[in-house]
Amino acid sequence: MIKKGIAVIGSTTIDEIIKKDGTLNLKLGGVTTYAGITYSRNGINTHIVTNVAAKDSRILENLYKENIHVHCGFTEFTTHFVNHINGDARNQRIPVIAKSIGCDQINEILDLVDCIHLGPLHPMDIENDALASLIKSRIPIFLDTQGYVRLIKDEIVYRGVMRYLVDALIASQIVKADELELETICQDYEMTLNELMHLFKIEEFVVSRGESGGLVKTIRGDEFNYTSAPIRKYDDSTGAGDVFFAAYNVGRFLKQNDVSDASAYAANLAARQVEGEYIKHTVLDLQHLFEIALY
């Protein structure tokens, strides 16, 4: 149950979205943005824990307008993503990252919330000591694995399992990965999803397959396949996975729906995000804050 509220922990980013036709948009990004807004719009008292440079603090304005409590630490730089998008295909660069989110930052909000959504975007997003502290806290945790299956070399993002994933899995009860992320994890750990869940005592594992839907597996062995919702017009898939996972958690742990209803609700919101109709460009647009592309 989510009663007091939820904290979303991870980078809030400045995203450069470069499409196949050369169109470039600057957008507010990060799991803190997409999941944070989704939780808040569903009536949940939502906190985000993040690090944004003082010079970029204006990017947080629309999060405040969404009634989100922003806990922002000091950092010299704000995390930047450069996304080259061609349909569902995406190549990413991370030219600069913010200071890692520390244990003290997280401890400050533990009494304010019932649960935590861990949304690291890269392996160093959250200090490992902070993960160890969360294990001891026993607070329920929803984990998006994406940041722990990203290897960054010379600013380019590659796929690879990072060592911090172990502590994150130990701390978490509900975990999400897309199909390729899960395949990478299982190959690296040399185990099946079922073995992974039992080793780390993961209660539910959500696997997304984009337009092909996905599945939810429980530690009891139940498996539920869900279908994606129809997309009437394709705009931008950025953030759709974050919206899906947050909406799924809303369905399961706020509305207390079963897996089928929760995944259907989440798939519908994710589809609206791909269409640009859920968290709209007016909320995410940063073009007016920066005259030209940053990197």
How would you describe the overall organization of this protein?
The chain is α/β, with parallel strands linked by helices and 295 residues long. The chain has one domain: Ribokinase (UDP-N-acetylmuramoyl-L-alanine:D-glutamate ligase, 3-Layer(aba) Sandwich). It is 31% helix and 26% strand. The chain has 10 helices and 15 strands. It has helices at residues 31-41, 61-65, 103-107, 128-137, 165-171, 179-189, 193-200, 240-253, 259-275, 281-284; strands at 6-9, 13-19, 24-29, 46-51, 69-73, 80-86, 89-96, 115-118, 141-144, 150-153, 156-159, 174-178, 204-208, 214-218, 223-226. The strands form 3 sheets. It has a 9-stranded mixed β-sheet with strand order 5-4-1-8-9-12-13-14-15, with helices on both faces. Helix 1 (31-41) packs parallel to helix 8, helix 4 (128-137) packs parallel to helix 5 (165-171) and helix 8 packs antiparallel against helix 9 (259-275). It is globular, with a radius of gyration of 18 Å. The model has no long low-confidence stretch (mean pLDDT 94).
